[in-house]
Design goal:
The complex is a heterodimer of chains A (631) and B (231).
Chain A: H1 15-18, E1 44-50, H2 54-57, H3 61-71, E2 76-82, H4 86-94, E3 113-117, H5 124-133, E4 149-153, E5 169-171, H6 178-192, H7 196-204, E6 209-210, E7 215-219, E8 225-230, E9 239-240, E10 268-271, E11 273-274, H8 285-288, E12 293-294, H9 297-311, E13 315-319, H10 329-342, E14 346-348, H11 356-365, E15 372-378, H12 382-387, H13 394-406, E16 411-418, H14 425-441, H15 443-449, E17 454-461, H16 478-495, E18 499-503, H17 506-516, H18 522-531, H19 545-554, H20 559-563, E19 578-579, H21 584-595, E20 606-607, H22 619-622, E21 626-627
Parallel strand pairs in A: 1-2, 1-3, 3-4, 4-5, 9-19, 10-13, 13-14, 15-16, 16-17, 17-18, 20-21
Antiparallel strand pairs in A: 5-6, 7-8, 11-12
Chain B: E1 2-9, H1 18-31, E2 48-50, E3 58-68, H2 75-85, E4 90-98, H3 104-107, E5 108-119, H4 128-136, E6 142-147, E7 150-155, E8 160-169, E9 172-180, H5 189-200, E10 204-218, E11 221-223
Parallel strand pairs in B: 3-10
Antiparallel strand pairs in B: 1-3, 1-4, 2-3, 5-9, 5-10, 6-7, 8-9, 10-11
Classes of the chains: A alpha/beta (631), B alpha+beta (231).
């Protein structure tokens, strides 16, 4: 802990610091639309922390939404903090400057609540580092009266166990409504004069809130969990994920902060829907955000217009897991295009399925050069695509690519995963076959146009994630993954020079996999790795595999136990007391179907009774469909 | 219709790069709904040209830009609208209609700077003006200038028109420099200070750099860029 002596200080960050770091504007705040409030008028101060660099964090929609929603309350002030880049951290530690928020330059330890978003496992070490820099005890049990409550949400919160030691509580699911309940409870608790722990018991009663200290976990001799039991009668046995039933009913930010420096997604983001109807079996997002719920195209149009006016951005991007599945896409695009063309705003449409309609749309929408087009077949053979329920055929892909090439696209990128359940070397070779067959099938168009085509094949390593049908599967060992990567690399090199091949670091994926399905015991490992200097693990230049392996070893835990072990369907999983909506029964069904290559239809075609019907909203209530299972 | 305008940059916005500053203006123009003209083609851009790049850390009283508009606006309304959309730290202070050809980027020829600095290895009594005169008496001053292809030696003596320095308070000095600037033969203030340290053997730490004025040149006479907006 750096310092925690005197209260309400506003830090001074001067030129001797700022002119000695890269991109100093990451640390100065004052961007357009930054919210300013009089501290005397607010009861509750919340520091929203993004455990990565400013340029990444400022691209995150969740931050924008919660910042907007909290700051609409007069009694609350939500501010922002990001992980300082290493050059800045060095100076901060040297000069004993605690991590501060950009709005008021207030150290983190002065806040009522400090909230982190958990976007990916490899940012966990940054959380510890930020708490330490912010003068807050890293372990929740060491926090006392007057220390901020440290909370977290986001996709990785659906298995919060590896972080149980560090957070006072987690919020499972969407935050727009539950955050109000938490703030109200906080204000009531503060007025009551109760002890710190009483607040935790108060929030434990809010649906979607998980207070890890109120649960005891016991283990069998083999290291597998035997039970997770509440140790307080107020704590629910199962924590149910929160969702917004009607997206049009919640506020959406049209006055987002406009950073001075370029960020990863430096544009207006229009979230068209949440959830996904597809059910690709490897994809966590496809299950944990169910059911699919749309924003109306009228509302989206208003948000778009107001956003351009209030931010001055010249680009709008639609955001969802699969843009083509938005039911009023033609209406939305036609209206938006009319306005964006008049205002010189460009519209980008990511994650579209390629067909005549979407190509025409892209042509009209982005006047930008036809640089690259990306497809995600995910697996190289039909057999394996059936296993993962990726409803795309070779013919689909060839006709899409032919359309794109005929339309003038010259670079095609294809994403695959290596290490999917049941994968053999034949499937791996199928990735190369697919690249070659695409090249060949476009030859006639290319000859006619006198054009060329670059194909890039890119593979990531499959990491089994909680709440997917593959949550019981062993991950391929690092050796197997690397063997497959080298084999594919050599094969492609032998066959053609027109195809480029990229692949991800298997070591990074291995560590990610251990934490994705980890339990509480891993807290020690994260702490030890942080002590060894691990941070920014998602960045190649900082990730240290050796330090992580040392940390596991020193804690007497094996990453293989978490990453490479096959689980039985009846094993108690670390996240079994969290209910995201999809039932275990459904996931078991999907897992069994995967192993025989049976497809499951998407939610508009057929209801598979995944469990999300219990939310009684979105796609589950909209269309009459066939129902598959009777249970 | 063209408008030439002058703006200032205060300490609040000095931590951003030139490219970031251009973006600040583009977005402000959009927020203020100024009827700017756009370039044709795949990627339409606002037609704004800036006089001279500003490096991180530099503040200024006197930056210039030319903007092409699709509709006429009275310069005073332009100033008002721009300032509504600009963040604290950047202010448009003056604007005129422009009829003359030529853009500001090619017209800027010289700049006046005020640079505050400390001398780390200073002896008790430094007569700073002696050092400055010593520098001015050099026939050539070779420094390594960064370019796209790495560093190369450049003689910057011809780019220095006048220099003078005083001790503001104990240990804190102020250099006033009038030097070449613009698309050709640009001399950055920090490079000048590097050369000053190199030639005098003083260990210099820049405290602040401030641009006081920019000039164009007409028939060997320095002129305010507004003076040539309607020539």
């Amino acid at each position: 802990m750096l310092l925690a002596s005197f209260k309400t200080m506003k830090l001074k960050i001067d030129d001797s610091i700022l002119l000695n770091v890269e991109k100093p504007a990451k640390y100065t705040g004052n961007e357009w639309n930054m919210v300013k409030k009089n501290l005397k008028d607010v009861k509750m101060r919340f520091a929203f922390c993004f455990p990565d660099d400013y340029e990444i964090g400022m691209s995150h929609l969740g931050l924008k939404i919660l910042y907007h929603i909290m700051n609409k309350r007069e009694d609350t002030y939500c501010e922002r903090a990001f992980a300082p880049w290493v050059d800045m951290e060095t100076i901060m530690r040297e000069k004993k400057i605690p991590l501060y928020t950009l709005e008021t330059y207030t150290p983190l330890y002065e806040f009522d609540m400090v909230g982190f978003t958990l976007q990916y496992e490899m940012s966990y070490s940054n959380i510890l580092n930020m708490l330490d820099l912010g003068g807050i005890p890293i372990l929740s049990k060491e926090r006392t009266e007057g220390t901020p409550f440290v909370i977290a949400g986001g996709p990785c919160a659906c298995n919060p166990e590896p972080l149980a030691d560090f957070f006072d509580f987690f919020v499972i699911g969407e935050g727009e409504e539950v955050i109000h309940e938490i703030i109200d409870e906080y204000n009531a608790w503060k007025e009551s004069g109760e002890a710190r722990n009483d607040f935790l018991i108060r929030v434990a009663k809010i649906e979607g809130v998980y207070v890890p200290s109120l649960y005891d976990v016991s283990y069998n001799e083999d290291g597998i969990i035997s039970s997770v039991i509440p140790n307080n009668s107020e704590a629910p046995e199962i924590i149910k994920r929160r969702i917004i039933r009607d997206l049009d009913s919640v506020d959406y930010p049209d006055d987002v902060i406009v950073p001075y420096i370029g960020t990863v997604h430096d544009r207006i983001m229009l979230e068209v829907f949440r959830g996904c109807i597809r059910g690709c079996r490897f994809c966590q997002a496809g299950f944990i955000y169910r059911p699919k719920r749309e924003r109306s195209h009228e509302k989206l149009y208003d948000i778009a217009r107001n956003s351009v006016e209030k931010t001055g951005y010249d680009e709008i991007s639609l955001l969802s897991l699969s843009t083509s599945d938005y039911s009023s896409l033609p209406d939305l695009c036609n209206n938006l295009l009319e306005f964006t063309e008049a205002e010189n705003v460009s519209l980008s449409l990511p994650s579209l399925r390629v067909d005549n309609f979407s190509l025409g749309l892209m042509e009209k929408a982005s006047k930008v050069r036809k640089s690259g087009l990306t497809f995600a077949p995910e697996a190289g053979t039909q057999r394996l695509r059936d296993v993962i329920n990726k409803g795309i055929t070779n013919e689909d892909l060839i006709s899409s690519v032919r359309l794109a090439v005929a339309g003038g696209w010259k670079h095609i990128k294809l994403y695959f995963m290596i290490g999917l359940p049941t994968e053999t070397m034949d499937d791996v070779e199928g990735i190369s076959d697919m690249g070659i067959s695409l090249l060949e099938s476009c030859r006639d168009i290319l000859r006619e146009k006198g054009s060329t085509l670059d194909i890039t094949l890119s593979t990531s390593c499959f990491v089994p994630k909680p709440f997917t049908p593959f949550q019981w599967e062993p991950m391929d060992s690092m050796e197997t993954l690397m063997e497959k990567q080298y084999h594919l690399k050599n094969l492609i090199k032998k066959r053609t020079r027109k195809i480029k091949y990229n692949y991800h670091d298997a070591k990074l994926s291995f560590i990610e996999a251990a934490f994705a399905r980890g339990d509480r015991r891993l807290g020690k490992v994260i702490y030890t790795a942080w002590e060894k200097g691990c941070k920014f693990d998602g960045w190649d230049e900082f990730f240290s595999f050796d330090k992580w392996m040392e940390a596991f070893e020193e804690c007497g835990l094996s990453p293989e136990f978490y990453a490479n072990r096959s689980r039985d369907y009846d094993e108690v999983l670390p996240w079994d007391h969290i209910d995201v909506g999809v039932s275990k029964k459904f996931l078991v069904r999907e897992s069994k179907k995967a192993h025989v290559g049976d497809l499951t239809g998407n939610c508009t075609a057929i209801c598979s009774k995944c469990g999300a019907q219990s939310f009684k909203t979105g796609i589950c209530t909209q269309i009459r469909r066939r129902v598959s299972y009777d249970d | 219709m063209m408008i030439r305008f002058k703006f200032t940059r205060g300490p609040e916005l000095k931590y951003i790069s030139h490219l970031d500053l251009l973006r600040v203006f583009e977005r402000s123009v959009k927020r203020s709904r100024i009827p700017v003209a756009y370039s044709q083609g795949f990627n339409p851009r606002q037609k704004i040209v800036f006089g001279l790049p500003m490096s991180i850390g530099l503040t200024s009283d006197c930056e210039y830009a030319d903007i092409e508009l699709a509709e006429d606006i009275i310069p005073d309304d332009f100033i008002k609208a721009m300032n509504e959309g600009l963040p604290k730290g950047v202010r448009v202070v003056e604007a005129v209609h422009m009829t003359a050809k030529g853009n500001i980027m090619n017209q800027i020829k010289s700049a006046r700077y005020e640079i505050l600095f400390e001398i780390i290895n200073a002896n008790e009594s430094i007569e700073i003006s002696d050092y400055v005169n010593g520098m001015l008496n050099k026939k050539e001053i070779i420094v390594m200038k960064k370019s796209k292809k790495g560093k190369k030696p450049v003689d910057i003596r011809p780019l220095i028109y006048s220099l003078s320095a005083i001790e503001e308070e104990s240990g804190l000095y102020k250099l006033e420099a009038f030097i070449s600037a613009g698309a050709q033969d640009n001399l950055r203030a920090d490079l000048l200070m590097e050369a000053f340290g190199q030639e005098t053997g003083l260990d210099i730490r820049i405290i602040s750099q401030h641009r006081k004025a920019l000039y164009t040149s007409v028939l060997n006479r320095w002129k305010d860029p507004f003076e040539v907006a309607n020539d």
